């Protein structure tokens, strides 16, 4: 496996959680527990099915989430947070808090994901 070159520790974090919806996926799994693909797709509305699939694969490869396939017909797949992924909870909470405090007139909140729902200012 080829090593990924990074210049600092912050870049490691950004490589793992940077992406169109990775923080939203992680937060959802931390707050709500195991989720099926369709449940994540329903909640994370601003992303395509292909992008969500790719982001889930990357999170799994980085050890932040686990994918469990149940031997049922039709097959059922659930995604859950790993201990490594759960260790990001404080960071994700701080990202929500920062966004809530710094949202301005350029933004319209259409689908609040954070616990505060973007209502606190």
TrEMBL record:
Q: Supply one GO molecular-function term.
A: DNA binding
Is tRNA processing found in the keyword set?
A: no
Which region is the signal sequence?
none
Q: Domain (HTH hxlR-type): give its ranges.
A: 8-107
The alphabetized UniProt keywords are:
DNA-binding, Transcription, Transcription regulation
Q: What is this protein called?
A: Helix-turn-helix transcriptional regulator
Lineage, highest ranks first? Bacteria, Bacillati, Bacillota, Clostridia, Eubacteriales
